[in-house]
Amino acid sequence: MVEFRIDRRSGVATYQQIVQQVRQALRLGTLVEGDRLPTAAQVAAATKVNPNTTLKAYRELEREGLVEPRPGLGTFVSRTLARPESAGDAVLRAELADWLDRARTEGLDREDVEALFSAVLEDRFPRS
């Protein structure tokens, strides 16, 4: 099950953070087709967000065809975003972990790493 983490300082709307975290879990295979998402009440209890915020996020995910509500049962993943794993994924993950260890050794904190990574990501993979 996915555990949502809300960053109230990020400037990103709370419902959008939930949408992004579900998408990421779908890409990484943490959530797969058929998995049940936590209820709005469960998310509210864990994150201190209004249940309607979670429902708004789930409606967005439903519009994208990623989840489907089942009355009386909950909201379930209807398709994945994960691509088939390759041997390269494990190598890239290990290299990224090594890079993050070096960044920490150099004194960078999480926000420094996020800023640096975002800048390079945007340079290498610009949005259209």
Automatic annotation (TrEMBL):
Keywords, sorted A to Z: DNA-binding, Transcription, Transcription regulation
UniProt cross-references to Pfam families, sorted A to Z: GntR
Annotated ranges, domain HTH gntR-type: 12-80
Transmembrane segments: none
Keyword DNA-binding: yes
SMART domains: HTH_GNTR
Keyword Transcription regulation in record: yes
PANTHER family from the UniProt entry: GNTR-FAMILY TRANSCRIPTIONAL REGULATOR, HTH-TYPE TRANSCRIPTIONAL REPRESSOR YTRA
Protein name: GntR family transcriptional regulator
